[in-house]
Design a protein that fits this description.
The complex is a heterodimer. Chain A has helices at 4-12, 17-38, 54-63, 77-92, 108-128, 133-165, 173-178, 188-208, 220-223, 233-258, 270-294, 300-322. By secondary structure, chain A is mainly α. Chain A has one domain (71-323). The longest helix of chain A has 33 residues, at 133-165. By secondary structure, chain B is mainly α. Chain B has 4 helices and 2 strands. A two-stranded antiparallel sheet of chain B has the order 1-2. Chain B is flat and about 75 Å long. The chains are: A mainly alpha, B mainly alpha. At the A-B interface, helix 1, helix 4, helix 5, helix 6 and helix 8 of A face helix 1, helix 2 and helix 4 of B.
Chain lengths: 324, 113
């Protein structure tokens, strides 16, 4: 188990804050290049080799601006809420095999899920704390999607944890990641449950991450920028920081539980395990970017109806199958 | 480590990382970089503008009312489809797929797969 110094290093350096910032730079550069290719553009080219430092340049530009809010905004509390949200996301990686001395406990997945499901609500709070008609509409749309998508994502995530608990997983994300590959071959109902949960979990993940077709909360063509309309400078930078960190950590948990965990790496070799998890995360992230760049956007009520009508039956069926 | 220790450690480290983010990316950058930017304010900076017109008080929307409206509309369409005839509903591929899925779960339970 990790000692205090290890915990501090893991929180602030690797795989915590500093490494997460590096990952955000890499993944956002990848996202911009991929979506640019799909739209027959070049994407970023000026900052750094092949434009790889463009996300960092954007971050520095925003945080170096003078903080300004409108007359009716809250000043400090939204910044503190978003910062804590970023902290909770960053620390989630300590419970995954990317950490060199991971923290884990029996039923830790419940605590991690609980903390992670709080995070999107800090974006909603950031939005409603800066009143504007478009921001309010965006926040309401975001909350409508979250109310439906978060139970869906949590239910789907429970399936590999339930199956793994029979193989010594103890409802711990880290312990489940060590035998995640064997969940697919544990039996017919287990394989079916994993297949259905991976589909419903992916749909739930898209909705939680505000990816098309569920990005009604920031529909540029209808409500300017929705939840981000009234934000600028450091507030926008922190909002984006949270959103981009979420797009790394949630796919990382998805890859850990549904794509075989550390397999084919040796679980005792943490460097190989971490590399495997990062490669799988980037694969999931790339699929999300392609989906985001190619699909059209639902209307808010269509998005909620889609989740209730198609994703929930899959999630419920997978939970029932996993209990056999 | 039990789950209570885990939760405490997770929450503590999360607050630590969040504090570092707030202090570095907001407080520090505002003091070192943003404070050097000259303040640009004129007589229209404080005016509240909506739709191109200055107003005394902007119109306010209720996020909860919009949220309820979205949920009502999404559930409302499902209610309308339930009122359709059973024959019409059973012919839809969605209901057939749902029945297939339920059968799959039921058979798995019965045969103990």
């Amino acid at each position: 188990m990790a000692n205090a110094l290890d915990l501090l290093i893991q929180t602030l350096v690797y795989p915590g804050l500093i490494f997460t910032i590096l990952l955000i730079i890499l993944t956002q550069w990848l996202a911009r290049k991929l979506s640019a290719r799909i739209q027959f553009r070049k994407g970023p080219v000026y900052a750094g080799p092949a434009g790889v430092l463009q996300p960092l340049a954007d971050l520095l530009k925003l945080v170096a601006k003078r903080d300004m809010v409108n007359k009716y905004s809250l000043v400090q509390s939204p910044l503190i809420a978003v910062s804590v949200g970023i902290g909770l996301l960053v620390v989630a990686q300590l419970a995954l095999p990317v950490a060199y001395s991971p923290i884990h406990a029996r039923y830790d997945a419940i605590a991690v899920l609980y903390f992670l499901l709080i995070v999107p609500f800090t974006i909603a709070y950031l939005a409603v704390a800066h009143p504007n008609p478009y921001t309010t509409i965006g926040a309401a749309r975001f909350l409508a999607i979250l109310v439906v998508s978060e139970p869906l994502f949590a239910t789907s995530i429970l399936v590999p944890l339930i199956i793994s608990s029979r193989l010594g997983g103890e409802f711990s994300i880290y312990l489940t990641s060590l035998n995640a590959a064997s969940l697919w071959s544990a039996g017919l109902s287990e394989a079916l449950a994993m297949a259905l949960a991976s589909i419903s979990g992916f749909i739930g993940m898209l909705a939680v991450l505000m990816v098309k077709p569920f990005d009604t909360a920031e529909a540029e063509s209808e409500i300017y920028w929705g939840v981000f309309t009234e934000l600028g400078g450091p507030r926008l930078a922190l909002g984006f920081f949270l959103k981009f960190a979420e797009r790394i950590v949630i796919p990382m948990i998805y890859a850990t539980l549904f794509l075989g965990g550390v397999w084919p790496a040796d679980p005792l070799n943490w460097a190989a395990s971490a590399l495997t998890i990062y490669l799988k995360t980037i694969l999931v992230f790339s699929i999300i970017v392609v989906v985001d760049s190619t699909l059209p956007r639902y209307k808010p009520e269509q998005a909620v109806t889609f989740l209730l009508k198609y994703a929930y039956p899959l999630a419920i069926a997978s939970i029932l199958l996993s209990l056999i | 480590m039990d789950v209570y220790d885990f939760t405490l450690i997770y929450a503590g480290l999360g607050l630590l990382a969040g504090s570092v983010v707030y202090l570095v990316f907001y407080v520090l950058f505002q003091k070192l970089a943003a404070a050097r930017t000259p303040v640009q304010r004129d007589e229209v900076s404080r005016l509240v503008v909506m739709g191109g017109f200055t107003v005394e008080e902007p119109s306010r929307l209720s996020a909860i009312r919009i949220l309820k409206d979205i949920l009502m509309r999404s559930l409302g369409s499902a209610r309308v489809s339930r009122l359709e005839s059973f024959a019409g509903a059973i012919s839809s591929w969605y209901l057939l797929a749902l029945i297939l899925l339920s059968l799959l779960v039921a058979i798995s339970f019965t045969l103990g797969w």
